[in-house]
Amino acid sequence: MYGQLARNVGLQSIKMNRIATAGIIIIGDEILNGKIHDTNSYYFAQKMFSLGVECKRILVVPDDELEIHNAVQLMQKYDFVVTSGGIGPTHDDITYDSLASAFKLPTELHQETAERMARLSQKNIQHEGDARKAQLRMATFPKGDNVDVIFLRDDLWVPVVGLNERFYVLPGVPQLFTKLLDSLIESFKGTRIISKSFIRYFVKTPLRESAMAPHLSKLQKEVGNDIKIGSYPHMGQGFNTISVLGREEDKSSLQYVVDYCVKNLEGEQVTDEQEKSYSEKVEDRVE
């Protein structure tokens, strides 16, 4: 299923920096004006969590070059950043151009991508005129020694374009985004991503958050910041849940927090599936 890397990329460039932190930039006016419901950031955050990578920030920006520049600056400190959207053929698809500008790079038609587009999109390809020029915008990328063009799937002509082995450009269409993100992550496993999975426990309690707050503050100070303790209201259901998050090496401390909450906060430990079902219920009333 996985394709070969483009000729200007070697496996060494994908293996360089270990990924511990991540972020995503969602690009598109249609998200900000409510026309489209963003699911890509949710999928990305879930994926990072499953791999033990901390998703530190999710940004949504319009199709605006300055806003994209600002987002790139904010995300520079994270190990792995993906962009979603803005790489189509129309005038408002400016992600490639904006990233090229942000990294002070020229853009150039990537011939291999254009050839793959013609071969894998035969029914939809335009052969001449303005429509053809518009299509080729989707194969016109930043060019430089710090740019990787990565073909990950034999069934898709669109590559993932990487910059500085940190920023990776993905489509906004959810079906394409998820396929390419999954393939990109697969290529990182065992090299840039060394699984160090999170562990999360939930405790259900009838107490109000205000009654829990002193206890949770006390527990947080006791176990330190490597463990994250949070409370989540389930309005209209008559209870709240406490989330206790850490890693494998924190297991004894996590269990201490859970046991404390069960004993002192009228708690009951519940599963991930139960917590998800509570969160998905329609809230009919507010306490």
Give an overview of the whole structure.
The protein is α/β, with parallel strands linked by helices and 287 residues long. It has eleven helices and twelve strands. The protein has a six-stranded mixed sheet with strand order 2-1-3-8-7-6, sandwiched between helices. Strands 10-11-9-12 form a four-stranded antiparallel sheet, with helices on both faces. The chain has a two-stranded antiparallel sheet with strand order 4-5. The longest helix has 15 residues, at 174-188.
Radius of gyration over C-alpha positions, nearest whole angstrom: 22 Å
Query: Average pLDDT across residues?
Result: 90
The proportion of residues forming helix, as a percent range, comes to: 25-40%
Helix/strand/pairing class, anyone?
A: alpha/beta
Number of domains: 2
Question: What's the CATH H-level homologous superfamily of the largest domain?
Answer: MoaB/Mog-like domain
Q: Name the strands of the widest sheet in spatial order.
A: 2-1-3-8-7-6
What's the level 1 CATH class of the largest domain? Alpha Beta
